[in-house]
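YM 10:42: DUF3899 domain-containing protein sequence, as discussed on the call
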Amino acid sequence: MKDSGLVRIKLVICHNKKSNLKTGKEDKRLHLKFIEDAIDRMASNSFLIKGWSITALGGLIAVYIGNQNKNWSYQLLVLTFALVIMFWGHDAYYLLLERRYRNLYEKVVDTDVEQIDYSMEPLDNGEKVWCVALAPILKFSYGIVFVVLLVILYIEK
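YM 10:58: structure's back
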């Protein structure tokens, strides 16, 4: 009898779409809470990426330092350099999404209850990922490692 419950839910949803239900302040508050949760997830993802990048890059650099005289050490540096770019790009992407959800939050706060569309689609603020990647926190986090590896790669070649 699981299907009857599912059908009942579908009927309620279809009925609610057809009727002109009024939305209230509680609906707006819940929508803002959903947006806050999305912002928190993006910030958490960014934090996790920073943690993984420190672990992975630190480990690879330690392996390189311990094996500088091996013939594969240069390839290890190239791999580390590629990982810096990958982590930097992922972190910039989540920061961009976080900023877009913050714009959605501000829009919902400023909108009257009757005019909210309750969309969870983040607002495009015109920023590009590569512009966000040059934010001060990301330049400090990844830029220094990027430049140091670039110099080492140039010297070792």
